[in-house]
Amino acid sequence: MQLNSYAKINIGLRIVSKRLDGFHNIETFFQQIDLHDTLCIETAEDGQITLQTSGRDCPSDSTNLAHRAAELLRETIGDRSLGCRIELTKRIPIGAGLGGGSSNAGVTLAALRQLWPNALSRQDIAACAARLGSDVPFFLQGGFALGEGKGDILTAIAAKLDYFGLLVYPHIHLSTAWVYRNFNLTRKNKIAKFKSFIPKISKQHLWRKELGNDLTQVVFAKHPEFASIVDQFYDCGAFYAQMSGSGSTFFGLFAERTQARRAAHLFRERYETIPFIPISL
Q: Which one is catalytic: 18, 57, 90, 135?
């Protein structure tokens, strides 16, 4: 079975409060995009879970979320005889705020639910996804959605958003845990506001004012040169530009493909650039 494993961007991200479990309550708009890894998954009669990956920076052991997803699903089913072989071809940058590892985990869960006997219900698969990571549940759903709680409480949004996007990746790995640990929540609790923005989501001229990313304060403090990336996107005509997740990838959204191409020409001398379009369900 061969499947595409799509990346995501975060259109806005607000830290609402610190949780008792050490995580943060957030609100964000997840958008699935057409940049993708490829997974080839098949059953293995020897009961082994094996993973082959492309790229020297991508682990092939149980530290890889796709491997962990297979292990967790087998453990949840309770049948140690189940095995699989996974081949992962990476295109999504690692540690870049694009959810590549979480996407791989979600696709692995969905595939093995079909391939292995005694498969679990959708609810059980969703519970496994939440155990693997806060944004893994989104990749079982895809499309465009509001994420709340740790990012695992999802509200699908039936919005057809047409634009041309450009990713700018500085080739700097930022640990999500480090970014959140260094975030200074100025107030103990903030009022959530993204849900009330859903009726206005088609008014893209409002995004720049209303949909910021709170985590940029941490990233810009460590890498002040990144602040100019957002400004340059707007200079190129983007209607919205932001850091995705906890970084280090930035993106610009354009009404016209020619604008995105001009921005790519500007950035590619210094950074890796990847064009994309959004995926709607």
A: 135
Nearest to 31 by CA among 123, 135, 177: 135
Question: Which of the residues 8, 37, 152, 214 is marked catalytic?
Answer: 8
Give the count of beta carbons closer than 10 Å to the beta carbon of residue 136: 26
Number of C-beta neighbours around residue 105 at 10 A: 29
CB 145 within 8 A of CB 30: yes
C-alpha distances (whole Å) from 224 to each of 31, 98, 180, 188 are 26, 21, 18, 26
Peptide bond before residue 248 is cis, with ω within 30 degrees of 0 = yes
- The span from the CA of 101 to the CA of 105, in Å, is 6
Q: Tell me the pTM.
A: 0.94
Measured distance CA(221)–CA(126) in Å, rounded: 36
Q: Write down all domains in the chain, each with its CATH number in brackets.
A: 2-153 (3.30.230.10), 162-276 (3.30.70.890)
Question: Which tokens belong to 250?
Answer: 């930035």
Burial 21-30 (b: 16+ CB within 10 A, else e): eeebbbbbbb
User: Following DSSP, what letter does each residue of 123-177 receive, concatenated?
Assistant: HHHHHHHHHH-TTHHHHHH-SEEEEETTTTEEEE-------EEEEEE-S----HH
Residue 135 appears among annotated catalytic residues: yes
Q: Which residues on adjacent β-strands are paired with residue 2?
A: 40
**Half-sphere exposure (Cβ direction) of 192: Cα atoms closer than 13 Å:** 15
pLDDT digits (tens, 9 = 90+) for 60-112: 988 999 999 999 999 999 999 999 999 999 999 998 999 999 999 999 999 99
Residue 190 among the catalytic residues:
no
- 3-state SS assignment for residue 236: coil
